[in-house]
């Protein structure tokens, strides 16, 4: 997810934030249909959705929230850069922690040591965010004014993304597979982002005209959206198996990737004072320390029992089988033997997705801003290593259930 934000730098090359976000959502839409189709097949996905139809509206809501938050994040990148915006919007872990405690009984029954780690980590994250805000003030008066708008956009994205975890967790304590959830999730994204684009660009004709002008950027934006989906799938599985109170802080260590892309690839430290650079790096590391403290707070049996009560509540409310849901939460997939396998049209979906990327690649060009190709290649290789390593472990333990 850290690498996925790199194409948002097109906002510094004259592409409007709304178009950047729309392009990313286009890539997200393609990926959120393609990856579940490859891993499980459309037959599996629709079987899962038919079994839990009440979660469809929650998936649409989560997609709408994502589209709004992503648009805010692009405005933030334009005004303060990736290196500062990333850690600021990653305070969404605090919002996720609040929702997890309030609605899904996370941390209920946890011992004092666990609570100290979680609350201490949360306070540390806030301190890191304050440092980053201070770093953005160490600029000229005009830059400081832009920075204020960027900080507000980052924090707004934080609140919306943190709230997005609420539908995530509701889906997974009901036993839904993340691959099924994100397939519907993307419909909410596309509808919301399309509506925002029409409003901000003044209608269909001006929007199409602006898309044609910016068409050379869309391959990179689609690619960023595709990368985001891969990372977000890991985040969804994390929300399912360890809860949003722990998954969100762990996921937010992606800000180190954002810092690396911003500083090493795009040279965002150029022209900044040594103090500003030191404060930015220090604030990022402090946020990561807070996230590490939260992630080390392993849920004791009493808290697990509290989570099971939340699952029982959902099962009673919607008429679900408790044993099937608990089996799903343990990493066993009850639908494997029930749902149909891959169908012939799955190959058509994958071929269409590849065709879209090939077409966009034929009309693209090098990004119109300075970037270090060596560092970009190094970060890309590291990202692939993390992807295949983490993907193999997830498949080995859960078979993507």
Structure description:
- Helix 10 packs antiparallel against helix 11 (about 245-250) and helix 11 packs antiparallel against helix 13 (about 275-295).
- The mean pLDDT is about 80.
- It contains 17 helices and no strands.
- It has about 400 residues and is mostly helical.
Please report which band the strand proportion falls in: under 5%, 5-15%, 15-25%, 25-35%, 35-45% or over 45%: under 5%
Instruction: Tell me the Rg in angstroms.
Output: 21 Å
The H/E string reads HHHHHHHHHHHHHHHHH
Tell the overall outline. Answer: globular
Structural class by sheet pairing and helices? mainly alpha
Alpha carbon gap, first and last residue: 21 Å
Record field, number of beta strands: 0
What is the helical fraction, as a range of percent? over 70%
Helix run count? 17
Poorly predicted regions: none
Which characteristics define this entry?
17 helices; 401 residues; single chain; 77% helix; mainly alpha
Topology summary:
Blueprint: H1 17-39, H2 42-51, H3 56-80, H4 82-89, H5 92-104, H6 112-137, H7 141-172, H8 178-200, H9 204-213, H10 218-242, H11 244-251, H12 255-265, H13 274-295, H14 301-318, H15 322-329, H16 344-362, H17 373-398
Short description:
77% of the residues lie in helices and 0% in strands.
């Amino acid at each position: 997810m850290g690498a996925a934000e790199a194409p948002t730098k097109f906002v510094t090359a004259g592409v409007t934030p709304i178009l950047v976000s729309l392009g990313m959502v286009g890539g997200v839409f393609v990926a959120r249909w393609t990856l579940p189709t490859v891993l499980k097949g459309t037959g599996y996905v629709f079987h899962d959705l038919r079994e839990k139809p009440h979660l469809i509206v929650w998936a649409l809501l989560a997609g709408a929230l994502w589209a709004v938050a992503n648009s805010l994040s692009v405005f933030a990148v334009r005004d303060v850069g990736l290196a500062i915006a990333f850690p600021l919007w990653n305070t969404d872990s605090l919002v996720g922690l609040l929702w997890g405690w309030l609605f899904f009984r996370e941390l209920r029954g946890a011992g004092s040591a666990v609570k100290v780690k979680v609350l201490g980590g949360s306070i540390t994250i806030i301190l890191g965010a304050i440092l980053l805000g201070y770093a953005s003030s160490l600029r000229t008066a005009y830059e400081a004014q832009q920075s204020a708008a960027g900080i507000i956009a980052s924090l707004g994205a934080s609140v919306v993304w943190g709230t997005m975890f609420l539908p995530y967790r509701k889906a997974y304590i009901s036993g839904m597979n993340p691959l099924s959830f994100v397939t519907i999730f993307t419909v909410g994204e596309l509808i919301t982002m399309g509506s925002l684009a029409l409003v901000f660009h003044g209608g269909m004709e001006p929007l199409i005209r602006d898309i044609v002008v910016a068409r050379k950027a869309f391959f990179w934006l689609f690619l960023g959206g595709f990368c985001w989906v891969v990372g977000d799938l890991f985040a969804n599985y994390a929300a399912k198996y360890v809860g949003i109170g722990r998954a969100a802080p762990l996921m937010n260590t992606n800000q180190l990737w954002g810092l690396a892309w911003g500083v090493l690839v795009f040279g965002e430290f150029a022209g900044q004072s040594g103090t500003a650079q030191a404060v930015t790096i220090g604030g990022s590391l402090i946020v990561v320390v807070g996230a590490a403290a939260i992630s080390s707070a392993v849920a004791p049996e009493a808290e697990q029992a509290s989570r099971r009560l939340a699952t029982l509540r959902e099962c009673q409310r919607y008429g679900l089988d408790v044993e099937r849901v608990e089996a799903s939460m343990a990493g066993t997939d009850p639908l494997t033997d029930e749902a149909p396998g891959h169908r012939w049209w799955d190959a058509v979906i994958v071929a269409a997705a590849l065709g879209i990327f090939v077409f966009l690649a034929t009309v693209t060009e090098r990004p119109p801003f300075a970037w270090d190709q060596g560092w970009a290649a190094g970060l890309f290789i590291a990202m692939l290593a993390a992807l295949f390593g983490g993907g193999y472990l997830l498949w080995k333990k859960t078979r993507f259930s």
